[in-house]
Amino acid sequence: MSALNRRNFIAGSAAMASTQALGAVSASGETEVAIVGAGAAGIAAARKVAAAGRRFVLIEASDHVGGRCVTESRTFGVPYDRGAHWVHMPDINPVAKLSSRTGLEVYAAPPGQKLRMVKRNAREGEMEDYLAAIVKANRAIQDAARGKADVSCAQVLPKDLGDWRAAVEFVLGPFGCGKNLEDVSAMDFARSLERDVDAFCRQGFGALLAKLADMPVQINTPVQRITSTRNSVEIETTRGRIVARAAIVTVSSGVLAADKIKFTPDLPKRQVDAIAKLSLGSYDHVALELKGNPLQLQNDDLVFEQAKGPRTAALLANVSGTPLCVVELAGKFGRELSQGGEAAMVDFATGWLTELYGADIKKAVGKTHATRWANEPWALGAFSAAAPGGQPGRRTLMEPVRERLFFAGEAVHETLWGTVGGAWESGERAADAALKLWGRR
């Protein structure tokens, strides 16, 4: 081992040991910062608090870290991201920037997308028309967002999108926001940063996030109640009570809206209203094992279709060079399919691919799996897109409650909502705010 590498190794080992010690819970259950939820925001917050030398406890209700960003290899024998998969804007994404320390590979996603016209690929002119329609719709929403009153994205779509309307509505709505455009705030849509440069983690985005969670985590520990007092915050869990000087709550807006955690005193109406308007949309994966590349697509090809209505999807093919092809179901139609169960979702996905690529596709399908995030008890949905009028709620949730309670997560980011990078930045921001308590007399 070279001297430089040895120094880095020793420094890294010391930092990890320090984090482990700071994250250990005392016998009395007392700590300095309690962090609820070990997704991207919770992990980021814990790392920030540890770096400041403050004691913390990281509590997770489910049996894994990562929240809605989790990778497993049991189902298909290859890394399978059941939740978040796209590493948006890797040049500025804080999680991507840390990937070099993990030994995992983050690589650029192929540029562009493919468009299917029933059983053939779109011609060059058709693709140009489709992309022009996307640009026109985007511009109309951006223009509307400059007005005084917020409206839904659907209200301002151009009337002359013609045969491309259904495709545009799916790409901008369910695929991009997890909701149909009539349920999405134009202001929220317009404020989200461009996400046209992407990357993937070959070993899985959830695997990358789990690598960064190099700290003690109390898993399988649901929080039942959070009580704020003048000098502390008390966290009641299924495994006992924790007392902290500050608490950072990073659970999804779906879990908050479902009152799975009780707050004493009740949360202020401002926060309650904000949570209600930042509800989670629906976005699920139907993963199909297609060995031998029967679709004749490149690795990580993204495919849409010239849809005729809302019964459509997107395809991510040959994920990271594996036989895994993922059909993305989202929005109202995706939610309805999810409610019908995994078999209904797989049946639609295989039927949809058959319509686009021919009857032989069904014969090529091996193992299958469908996620149902709305049924995951500690998620209750995919990610947040604000309802019309709900965009200011993101900033409302950034406000501390009674000076000791802080919220974080993808819903608590104004421009990177719906992304792992946004959740991470939000967690760091909440940790910075909590740490200011130690600067007061």
Give a structural overview.
The protein has 14 helices and 20 strands. The chain has helices at residues 3-22, 40-51, 94-97, 124-145, 165-177, 186-191, 205-212, 253-257, 269-277, 331-339, 342-357, 360-364, 393-398, 420-435, and strands at residues 33-36, 56-59, 71-72, 80-81, 87-88, 106-108, 114-117, 120-121, 198-201, 223-228, 233-237, 240-244, 246-249, 262-264, 283-290, 302-305, 314-316, 324-330, 365-370, 405-407. A 7-stranded mixed β-sheet has the order 8-7-16-17-18-15-19, with helices on both faces. The chain has a 4-stranded parallel β-sheet with strand order 2-1-13-20, with helices on one face. Helix 2 (40-51) packs parallel to helix 14 and helix 4 (124-145) packs across helix 5. The chain is globular.
Shape: globular
Helix content: 25-40%
Strand content: 15-25%
Rounded mean pLDDT score? 94
- Class by helix and strand content? alpha/beta
Low-confidence stretches: 1-15
- Number of separate helices: 14
**Estimated radius of gyration:** 22 Å
| Gap from first CA to last CA | 47 Å
* Largest sheet features: 7 strands, mixed
Placed side by side, the strands forming the largest sheet appear as 8-7-16-17-18-15-19
For the secondary structure, the number of strands is 20
